[in-house]
Amino acid sequence: MKNTFGRHISVTLFGESHGAAIGAVIDGMPSGVRIDYELIADMMDQRRAAGSISTARREDDLPEFLSGIKNGYSEGTPIAFLIRNDNVQAKDYEQLKDTARPGHADYTGHIKYRGYEDASGGGHFSGRLTAPLVTAGAICMHMLNEKGIDIGTHIAKLKDIEDIPFDETNLKRDIELLHQRKFGVLDPQRSEAMIASIMACREQQDSIGGILDTAVIGLEAGIGEPEFDSIESELSHAMFSIPAVKGIEFGEGFHFADMYGSQANDAFAIDHGKIITKTNHNGGINGGISNGMPIRFRTAVKPTPSIARPQDTVDFAEMQEKKLTIVGRHDPAVIHRARVVVDAMTAIVLTDLLLERHGTLYFGDER
Amino acid sequence: MKNTFGRHISVTLFGESHGAAIGAVIDGMPSGVRIDYELIADMMDQRRAAGSISTARREDDLPEFLSGIKNGYSEGTPIAFLIRNDNVQAKDYEQLKDTARPGHADYTGHIKYRGYEDASGGGHFSGRLTAPLVTAGAICMHMLNEKGIDIGTHIAKLKDIEDIPFDETNLKRDIELLHQRKFGVLDPQRSEAMIASIMACREQQDSIGGILDTAVIGLEAGIGEPEFDSIESELSHAMFSIPAVKGIEFGEGFHFADMYGSQANDAFAIDHGKIITKTNHNGGINGGISNGMPIRFRTAVKPTPSIARPQDTVDFAEMQEKKLTIVGRHDPAVIHRARVVVDAMTAIVLTDLLLERHGTLYFGDER
Amino acid sequence: MKNTFGRHISVTLFGESHGAAIGAVIDGMPSGVRIDYELIADMMDQRRAAGSISTARREDDLPEFLSGIKNGYSEGTPIAFLIRNDNVQAKDYEQLKDTARPGHADYTGHIKYRGYEDASGGGHFSGRLTAPLVTAGAICMHMLNEKGIDIGTHIAKLKDIEDIPFDETNLKRDIELLHQRKFGVLDPQRSEAMIASIMACREQQDSIGGILDTAVIGLEAGIGEPEFDSIESELSHAMFSIPAVKGIEFGEGFHFADMYGSQANDAFAIDHGKIITKTNHNGGINGGISNGMPIRFRTAVKPTPSIARPQDTVDFAEMQEKKLTIVGRHDPAVIHRARVVVDAMTAIVLTDLLLERHGTLYFGDER
Amino acid sequence: MKNTFGRHISVTLFGESHGAAIGAVIDGMPSGVRIDYELIADMMDQRRAAGSISTARREDDLPEFLSGIKNGYSEGTPIAFLIRNDNVQAKDYEQLKDTARPGHADYTGHIKYRGYEDASGGGHFSGRLTAPLVTAGAICMHMLNEKGIDIGTHIAKLKDIEDIPFDETNLKRDIELLHQRKFGVLDPQRSEAMIASIMACREQQDSIGGILDTAVIGLEAGIGEPEFDSIESELSHAMFSIPAVKGIEFGEGFHFADMYGSQANDAFAIDHGKIITKTNHNGGINGGISNGMPIRFRTAVKPTPSIARPQDTVDFAEMQEKKLTIVGRHDPAVIHRARVVVDAMTAIVLTDLLLERHGTLYFGDER
Description:
4 copies of one chain form a homotetramer.
Chain A: E1 4-5, E2 10-15, E3 21-27, H1 37-47, E4 64-65, E5 69-70, E6 73-74, E7 79-84, H2 91-94, H3 106-113, H4 130-146, E8 150-158, E9 161-162, H5 171-180, H6 188-203, E10 210-217, H7 231-239, E11 245-250, H8 261-264, E12 268-271, E13 274-277, E14 285-286, E15 289-290, E16 295-301, E17 311-315, E18 320-324, H9 335-358
Helix pairs in contact in A: 1-4, 1-9, 4-9, 7-9
């Protein structure tokens, strides 16, 4: 299904960076869901370049909805939308024709599509394709919010700088705080340090990555499907759709390798008549199914591959080695933009899994 | 699709640990594929308890094939097989009824299935369900081998002990070496140390996990699908189907967070008329598509949750807290058994993606 | 997905007529559904050869369940079952090797599977594969019955003999009547005439087909999905999985071609506070979605292709024309056996569509 | 998957009749396929109202392509396109609010979508949604043509008037002839009679339907998948996506009920070194798989439900019976427009099945 994701609610993505438009079709939307345009705008804003630290390309164009919405509510039919690509500077990319930018999909896309691909600006592999994902995710996010579920992601680490960790005793407050932040960091001081680090990186014609940390609160126990459609399988499948994501871990993840079972197990207890775990090393998931505790996972984001320094590469048409210097606007980091894409993809996955369990009448207002 | 994985070749899994049988149906098999029973037996052997370090339960029963094979070759129709559960000691689990074993799916399975589940021995969530996965994976592995593709996984780290890394200049030799190892470690000395560590862990009534490191060689460039069916999305989806896997990273993965773009990018070059990358930080994948270099990824395996020490938990039927002491046979580690499951799931994923590109006539002997 | 059908509840079929076993895996079963073994046996009995008019092969073996059922209730995990092929007379088929029986899948299967297929007894294309479908359908049928839905099919026409039509004013009674009939005909006299006709056909070494007429009562309005997953799309997809089915029509179907719109439209009215249609020319479906009236459709069943008369054909290995005389046991008609397969497939489709709308908690007992 | 159809190549449909736009996303397109704009225009022209016999609404707007095409060739990435709805006369539909037009999806859509649907002009259920299907089908048709496959459909019967049958000995000529016909009838005289019949029907404020007859030539043997993805299952699934289609039969279809097996079986023979069947009662399909003979099927199209005569119906908001007189432009028949939709859906299905067998590199030009 290549460009379609999800079973009950499914998102079909289209577009190239320098084509006419990008967009998506959301199928399986329950009817009667209020489209929260403000939330869409907020999340698109978080994804957009935030001031001077990000690419100069303006993308403040919001999605144009083509179908599936009437009077501000979902009709139940597919919601299609597009975002025009009206700020294209294709000539920046002309020099790159048939040149494999290291770390990019130019070469693999060329092999896959036999030279027919539009690689300009990254083409279909461009990070710009995350804009429709955020739009679709924002629509789902509102549905989840209505059910008491919320999702937040902060930059846990940007190269040498680490944010303070989530306050596990008050995730709700931290998540709300992140919703208001332009730059997704909990500690304002670390936030400034990170921004400075990104700026310095640009000076050095280099780029950096980091680690995103996500928390989901309010998700009921019993969500997720064995064997192959566990929450972990579904979330990881979704996360690796985000360009630059190269790792994911749930709960303690790779740190489990340093723990004994007696440390790693989360003891069950009863708290106010509700079953909880005393710790949450497993990130709210046992056997692939939610246990009612917050879902917790971290994603690794690699440094942006587009850097201004000269690099060794090949011209795959001429089959010869060459030096490449990428010009044009490029982010020295994308992690601060990726965090809301992680939120969005998480929202899509959880909506899908909830629909499996509760059916299409679960969501949407009564009329 | 819950218990079905794959689009072109798909595996449908069934069974509970203490039910009549476990097994799978492999649909979409090309016809004319030789069923390599020796390879199946070898891989099943790697998955099986290796001597005293693993659970005493004997599972030397090989799969009984029910359909889809004639004269040792696939017919093209579904291959169904089962493995009987004839060594069940259900009474060991009777005390566990309605008791949420920490780190296990007892509670989440109970919420999901409303008390109708057979939780005995982990039920459908048991690690025993990986036996059919290995069988299916072994059939695919042979298909890949015929195309010059091979897959190997070693225990890179078992708590404090690290294996020597793969020799990136001779992965073929290392992979072949691992195929012959009962215990999947490259360095024999580290292997002994790890086994000792597991034995010590049993003494302490505790368990340990670790990190698996996988290499795939011989995969052509251009395999994998954007946006949602990248190699990374598909492999991660598959890996999180393996119980105890809690993290996955491709190439440098989480270590990318410590690198500059100028360090992380893999420069392209031409080697004997073939495009290669000088380094392989991206694990052979750019934009979700194979670039012809070895696929490299690591998976985090948590410590086995079944430990003999008394643990705090709840009886979810009585809704009261209780102490739990798990008796019966349990592995103090599963990582040495999980490595071949990782190989198997990788083989299934890559076969599926190759079928997408090359069609069903690509595999199988000519007649 | 070849051998897997359904999205929420899915049936994966396996087996060849003369292989070790046939069977299926039902995934997506809600938990807590009572397995109605008596209904399974009844429906399997309807499918089985009824006395002297059908093939002498004994298939009274009921399915052996391997997983997913505990204490007579579904666990929520996959239900796998098999039926052994223990009455195989393979030598009857030896003469048929590489011979394309007219009307059969021998030749197409050979091209598709390149000679690796087990064509003996029809192999994977055998009508015997409908036994697992009936088993799976019977499980779904019980789920539907619990929701007040029932399904019945009669032989509307067997060559020159027509049954009396369904009494549209009392479908419930007619459907119940059909459940009790060994031979699915409403009018006992026509039933006898049809059986005599089949017997005569055997004498003439020939075969006959006919038309099945199906009614579904109790289905709520609003079930079915546009554009591509309408009730009609789903039911037709399912029906053409039944060997020998070559046509399907909903409501007036092909007879619509003889009607004016003013005759074909079903006027809406209100009856006891419920919206109904005064007529049901559209077979309970508008725009692909149920309107609360009975679902009505007819399926065309072709004469059994296996006839004892000498036929012209080819040996596709030798690539030469030859005469073929099929020996062994063969039904001069299968329509009386197919009717319950139609019921079964209908039950699977409707269960699937109801799960889409109502979620997995809709079915199954409360506990 | 509701609005997505196909596995290898998949079409995701969106739009409402009176919304901003309708359109589709074609995913899984092989790269290097020339987009035959002329063929698209031709097929869209056949679908469009042909002169005075069809609705006055002008829809000559051709699709606007948004992605996936570069320099007239498919890139391999999703092809998205839209068609604006700029000729909407919504006020014609205002009187219909909450009124169930007999034979339409107003009521079922209302129940399904709980009143949030945009029923105006039929909304998502409108025949207008077939325009994107024809666009997508035309792209596939070109791919098939390049492989020597062609598809044609004629109006075999329009109420009392029957066209001459296809000349089975020269289907190629008949299909080419149909491609050039505005009104899809083989015999020009019958064509005129049918048009006159439709015109008369309009005078009587009524509507008529008929039967479409389709032939596919050039399809290789071995295409189609058992059990559930037979050519018949896939084609029927696709055809019932076309509004007004209420029946489908393959080969002799319902007429099989009047034949003996000895008449119905197609004897195999060898013709110029190629295996053929002497007759083609089975419509080129044995066991769900193509046998190399022409694929032959017929579809029943019901009379257009929108008629100008007063009809009995209900207001489902007020829950009371009422008289309805539909005003506005409406076709007294759609069958002459539906024939190219049948061609288009057939092209999509066959492309999908060919991709399954031959992989994505099968189609598209070499470069």
